[in-house]
């Protein structure tokens, strides 16, 4: 009995010690997270102060050049959008012209058939369908002629109605065609005006850029490279939206079904679709080494995870892969994913050639998409994790969230 008591007592003591260890571990982990949060907040404050210092140190000429580069980027984006719309309108006009041509051929044929019917009726004089029926030689003949006459009357009615409808369709198509042509003329005029303005701003930039110091010229080149890279990314993603419309719709439906399922199971409708917890960490290890601003004070608009080259990178949430590429600068090897809530996540500076997903693929939360690396405009091995909302635009000169479409990823983790 004594041995049993000792054994039970020993077990209870062991359990108590384990529980204490777990509590200590949980407390330690919580403290680490709190300390990391405090460190990040401190980095943010330091970065904001550094940003103010950097802005104050910039020469007036550099500020003017940055402003002009920003304006150039805006005009080029607008011109690209107009050119896309012009291309769509020209295609629509061409299609409508063919439709109208075909409808007019069909209308002419129906109109000629109707005229033939009227001529036939005119040639037969005032003979009515009743006259035809009364000349029947037998009851069977009577019913046969009656049926034929009824069918003939219905055919005449259908032909007249069909001709009217065809005429109305042609008029509607012509009205839409004229509307498209007017919109095309407006778009062409706007494009021409913006191109003239763009040329003027580029000339202004060249004049100001010639006054820059060697260091400022390097910064100018960096700005232009980033703007150009992001403009191309935006164009590619717009095309991807058209190509992958079916996948995006499938993703949306799945998200709605999942939300409904969760609502039914929980009964409270507690389903995270936008806020904290929507995204998981895109890498399992590594501390956050940069948040909204770099140590230099320049706006970063993303999270950097300090991880070794070759670390698996996963999709932060279910989504459709919109674009993948291997750039020599900017994001380097990167992946862009569109999610059901409309956000886009960017994963940059991966190992060259390590991307394991293709455009149009529907990926699951936690699915491997590439390996981290040190490609593009990178100062060391890390993963760049960025989140954007619609309309997904980018501005090098943004000084904080709200300056473009980038949003703070920490709000969704």
Feature tags:
11% strand, two-stranded antiparallel ribbon, alpha+beta, 10 strands, eight-stranded antiparallel β-sheet, 413 residues
Commentary on this structure:
With 413 residues, this protein is α+β, with helices and mostly antiparallel strands. It has 6 helices and 10 strands. The chain has helices at residues 2-57, 60-123, 129-134, 139-209, 214-243, 245-266, and strands spanning 287-290, 303-306, 312-314, 319-326, 333-339, 344-350, 362-363, 368-371, 383-388, 406-407. The strands form 2 sheets. Strands 1, 2, 4, 5, 6, 7, 9 and 10 form an 8-stranded antiparallel beta sheet that branches. The protein has a two-stranded antiparallel ribbon with strand order 3-8. Helix 2 runs antiparallel to helix 4 (139-209). The longest helix has 71 residues, at 139-209. The radius of gyration is 35 Å and the shape is flat. The two termini are 55 Å apart. 20% of the residues are buried. The model has no long low-confidence stretch (mean pLDDT 78).
Number of helices: 6
Helical content, roughly? 55-70%
N-to-C SSE string, H for helix and E for strand: HHHHHHEEEEEEEEEE
Secondary-structure content class: alpha+beta
Average residue-wise pLDDT: 78
Strand content: 5-15%
Distance between the termini: 55 Å
Main β-sheet: number of strands, strand sense, barrel status? 8 strands, antiparallel
- Computed Rg: 35 Å
Q: Would you report the number of β strands?
A: 10
Question: Which stretches are low in confidence, meaning pLDDT under 50 for 5 or more residues running?
Answer: none
Please state the overall shape, judged from the principal axes of the Cα atoms: flat
């Amino acid at each position: 009995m004594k041995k049993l008591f000792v054994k039970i007592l020993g077990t209870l003591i062991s359990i108590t010690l384990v529980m204490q260890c777990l509590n200590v571990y949980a407390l330690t982990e919580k403290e680490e997270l709190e300390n990391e949060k405090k460190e990040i907040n401190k980095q943010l404050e330091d970065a904001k102060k550094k940003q103010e210092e950097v802005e104050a140190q910039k020469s007036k000429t550099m500020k003017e050049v940055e402003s002009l580069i920003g304006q150039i980027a805006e005009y080029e984006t607008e011109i690209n959008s107009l050119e896309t719309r012009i291309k769509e309108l020209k295609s629509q006009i061409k299609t409508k012209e063919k439709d109208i041509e075909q409808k007019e051929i069909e209308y002419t044929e129906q109109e000629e058939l109707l005229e033939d019917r009227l001529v036939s009726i005119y040639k037969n004089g005032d003979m009515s369908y009743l006259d035809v029926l009364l000349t029947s030689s037998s009851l069977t003949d009577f019913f046969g002629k009656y049926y034929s006459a009824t069918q003939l009357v219905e055919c005449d009615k259908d032909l007249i109605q069909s001709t009217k409808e065809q005429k109305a369709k042609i008029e509607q198509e012509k009205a839409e065609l004229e509307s498209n042509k007017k919109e095309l003329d407006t778009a062409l005029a706007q494009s021409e005006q913006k191109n003239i303005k763009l040329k003027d701003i580029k000339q202004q930039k060249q004049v100001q850029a010639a006054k820059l110091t060697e260091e400022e010229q390097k910064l100018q080149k960096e700005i232009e490279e980033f703007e150009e890279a992001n403009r191309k990314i935006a164009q590619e993603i717009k095309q991807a939206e058209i190509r992958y419309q079916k996948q995006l719709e499938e993703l949306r439906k799945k998200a709605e079904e999942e939300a409904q399922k969760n609502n039914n199971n929980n009964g409270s409708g507690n389903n995270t679709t936008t806020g904290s917890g929507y995204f998981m960490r895109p890498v399992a290890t590594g501390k956050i080494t940069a948040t909204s601003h770099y140590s230099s004070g320049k706006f970063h608009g993303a999270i950097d995870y300090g991880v070794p080259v070759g670390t698996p990178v996963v999709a932060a949430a279910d989504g459709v892969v919109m674009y993948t590429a291997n750039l020599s600068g900017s994001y380097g090897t990167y992946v862009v994913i569109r999610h059901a809530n409309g956000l886009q996540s960017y994963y940059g500076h991966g190992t060259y050639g390590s991307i394991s997903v293709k455009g149009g693929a529907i990926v699951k939360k936690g699915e491997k998409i590439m390996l981290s690396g040190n490609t593009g405009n990178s100062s060391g091995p890390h993963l760049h994790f960025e989140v954007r909302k619609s309309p997904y635009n980018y501005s090098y000169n943004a000084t904080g969230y709200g300056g473009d479409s980038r949003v703070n990823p920490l709000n969704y983790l």
